[in-house]
Amino acid sequence: MKYIIKTILLTALISSCQDKSKNEGYLINGFAENVSDSTKVLLYLYPKIDEIADSTFVINEEFQFKGNLSRPRLAHLRIIESRDDKTFWLENRQIDFIAEKGNFSKGRIRGSETQKESEMLLKRKDSIFKEMEKLEAKVTEKNRDSLFEIYEKMQNIEIEINNKFIQEYPNSYESLTRLNWSKERMGSEETAIVFSYLNSDLKSTEEGKAIAEFISNNKNLKIGDKFVDIKQSNVNGKMTKLSQIHKKYTLIEFWASWCGPCRSFNPELVEQYKLYKDKGFEIFGVSLDTDKEKWRKAIEKDGLNWENVSDLKGNNNQAAVTYGVRDIPDNFLIDDNGIIIARFIRGQELDEKLKELFNTK
Predict the structure, then answer these.
(1) Which domain holds residue 188?
(2) Is residue 120 classed exposed, middle or buried when 0-12, 13-18 and 19+ CB atoms within 10 A define those classes?
(3) Is 226 among the domain residues?
(4) Is pTM beyond 0.90 here?
(5) Which one, 12, 49, 209, 350, has the greatest CB density within 10 A?
(6) What is the per-residue pLDDT for 359?
């Protein structure tokens, strides 16, 4: 009953407070049913997802954040030391968050126009997301490679839905974000077409500039293409080029210390490297990290005894932009002529390929 009463009161208050809060900044009114007093709530603002932007405490099942944004941004609320969280679009308006303990992710957001657009797009993708979840539940060590191919096709369907939305909502920050997150999968040509739908203000944002840079620099490399050289620093600060370490067959492995699936594949790569390095097999690791120390520790812990480089620009890593890499792990296998002969090859498929290339049984 208390939850219902609060919802009714919020509906009445939103229209009277909205214009004022829009001018003065944002005001997040949080209503957290069954959350104890003095529970700490954290606020993060994208893209600085590792930095706490603000924090507050729950009093009488309520909490509040105040601030000011130069533009709408994705925000992330989380109860400290828990997985109770919610990501949503924050704007300089009164934003009301209504949830209960243990179900922050299902909490309702009111007052954010960009959030309404985001939820609209989410509904359009509901059926494909359900299919993805079913597929993820079936993944095992033996079938993960074959299921990944099906998963990729589903991701392409999701991108088609996103692109239709972008064309319909060219002024939305949700449109900008979706395009920025899927540009590598689409390639520069398709990205340029969809980018043209966006208004000039969105094109001038940090994400818009990243998309424009991608369109200019991405080579959309495919199997059969000549590799593009990579020059970045290793963990010791030494500039290293792919062409300097290239052997008979070289695997360009895109990964990051924070990427769970990447780390899970590393033991296999370590064993394959041991078996074939003396026969002419090399690995060139390119990290999408931003934290040098975390990157260094991951290399040591996983025993990655091949050359690893990074420009510490995260998803905007120059090599990743050039090769069109967004989702990791990803890789490219190149032969002694510098031709790409395989992409996203790992596990049993990579084992069989290496046996074939080096004539081993």
Answers:
(1) 125-217
(2) middle
(3) no
(4) no
(5) 350
(6) 84
